[in-house]
Amino acid sequence: xxxxxxxxxIRGDIPTKKVYEDEHIFAFEDIDPKAPTHVLVIPKKHIRxxxxxxxxxxxxxxxxxxxxxxxxxDRGIEDGYRxxxxxxxxxxxxxxxxxxxxxxGRDLGWPPG
Length: 113
Ligand code: AMP
Ligand code: ZN
What we know:
The chain is an alpha+beta fold and 113 residues long. It has helices at residues 5-11, 58-75, and strands at residues 18-21, 25-29, 37-43, 81-84, 100-104. A hairpin with a 7-residue loop joins strand 2 and strand 3.
């Protein structure tokens, strides 16, 4: 999508600190990190959010989480991290291109706020 912030990041129109990229996935540092590790893992396919995803998106959503797990392993934070999908405005979703937050590197409270 031309006017989607994360599609523009994937295209390289907006600079980011890239963490990982393959044919299907792009991952980059969150611009406003909430923890020592705060990476956004996104599908290259534009999907508006989890509630708009369809069964054909199941594999790519799984790949996003497995990529987050790989990044967490590489960074040595497997003692505790979260993969978070905010869904809808009341959850705090502000960018409407599906993204998995990988948050870790500190103690994480439960329940989340
Ligand atoms: P959400 O609130 O779940 O929609 O998450 C959107 C995330 O995108 C927030 O954590 C923002 O800090 C992050 N974000 C917004 N713009 C950028 C950007 N240009 N580069 C990196 N992260 C961004
Ligand atoms: Zn997009």
